[in-house]
Amino acid sequence: MELYGYPLKAKFNQPRPPPPKVLPATGTMTTSYKNRIPYHPESFSMPWMPDSYYKAAALNPTLSPLTESFPGLPPTKIVPFISERPNGVFSRHSLDDWHRSNMTNYKESETTRHNAERLRADLTRTIKDVYQQAKRTQGESTKNLGERVNDIEYWKSELCIELDAMIRETNSLTDMQKRLERALADTEGPFQVAHKCLLHREKRMGIDLVNDDVEKQLITEIKTIRSCRERLQQCLDTVNCQLMCNKEARQELEKDLADKQMGHHIDSKCYQLKNTSRGIHYYKGVERVDATVSVPETWARFTDNNIFRSQSARATSAKLRASTESLLMGTADEMWRQFSKVNDAFTSRITETANAKSKIQTHLAKTRQEIFQIETKIQVIQKTIRDKEVQLKVAQTRLDERTRRPNVELCRDAAQIRLVQEVNEINETLRNLHQCLRASEDMLQMLVRSKGVLEHDLVVKNNSLFIDQERCMGMRKSYPSTVQILGYV
């Protein structure tokens, strides 16, 4: 409570009338205030009372000449300074003048006392009013400070609740980000496996180098994994952007909360200050300094906007987490279904190749058996031809010897006829046997060629089985499980 420059108005604050001219020029009240200490508003001993004192008047009355005390009197009324009494006795005033002077002084003293009493009553009333006004003003300021502290506490609690919710949401979104990164990294293995399977299958030989269902499913798997990787990467970029938005909203909340805490500390300190508190000082001119940057409406709207921004970011983050979870489940299921299709195609192709290999082995065994029998028959035919040639030699030798019979002994008898028939029959048999031998040898060549084809085809099938069963399926057994794809581990 400060009464700096407070106007003290009272009924007695009127110009003092001049003293009567009939009074003698003795020591008056005017001379007693010549050395009074001036009033300084900066000097205070108490918060409400000025520290100004007045020196007591010097009561040393002096006499002055009448001409100096009463300059307005005509010269005819001036009493001549001539001793008219014996023994040098001289009287300046009459007895009536003396009585009038005393009465005048009495009345002036009574008036002065009356005015002083009125002044004291007015001062008492003014001081009481000042105390009441100061108490009322200070009470209103304290009440406003208390309401301000309550408002700050309310917004502090709202900010703390929203900040805790934002921290939990940010942590959940960070976990989802890590799951996305792990899921994206886990798709690299299946992608490389599918590519290697295609490269390994390019090493198939001959007729097995076909565009079968396995190759089609592998190409589809590569496309599926690439599509899933692109969607996961886009979702990861979106999650990263949302994390930045969450962090910005969190920083705004933390900054606002720190400001609220500092303001709450300052306003609580101001609310608890009293007239008897320590550490209170004068700060001249501080009331003229306006450092405010907001009003209660804009102040509350600022915090409300921060909370609304954080709530919007949290809602977007929660929706993004739900869509990311759905995306992880969808991509994992899609990749797993395609992986199963490729494995089924590999299994079918391996079974088909194994059956073909088994049939080739059966045919190869039969072909080898047939080759063995044909070779045996060829040997029999060759032995038969050799035997028939010896028999032909015998028959032709007999005929040649019988050509040497003399004269009439050259008879065309039954023996001659039979020998000729035997030679012809043996020659016909030899021709037939040679035809059978050539046919057998041709068949043997065909069987040998068929055997080579079967053996080559068997090698091809073995190579295809090794590629599909050992290399491709061996790699695909190490494909990550659905839990790993989803990023739970």
UniProtKB/TrEMBL annotation:
Entry superkingdom: Eukaryota
Keywords associated with the record: Cell projection, Cilium, Cytoplasm, Cytoplasmic vesicle, Cytoskeleton, Flagellum, Membrane, Ubl conjugation
Major localization listed first in the record, in broad terms: cytoplasm
Compartment annotation: Cytoplasm, Cytoskeleton, Cilium axoneme; Cytoplasm, Cytoskeleton, Flagellum axoneme; Cytoplasmic vesicle, Secretory vesicle, Acrosome outer membrane
Its membrane topology: Peripheral membrane protein
GO cellular component: axoneme; microtubule cytoskeleton; nucleus; outer acrosomal membrane; sperm flagellum
BP terms from Gene Ontology: cilium assembly; cilium movement involved in cell motility
Assembly and oligomerization: Microtubule inner protein component of sperm flagellar doublet microtubules. Interacts with TEKT1, TEKT2, TEKT4 and TEKT5. Interacts with CCDC38.
Family: Belongs to the tektin family.
Function in brief: Microtubule inner protein (MIP) part of the dynein-decorated doublet microtubules (DMTs) in cilia and flagellar axoneme. Forms filamentous polymers in the walls of ciliary and flagellar microtubules. Required for normal sperm mobility.
Record's protein name: Tektin
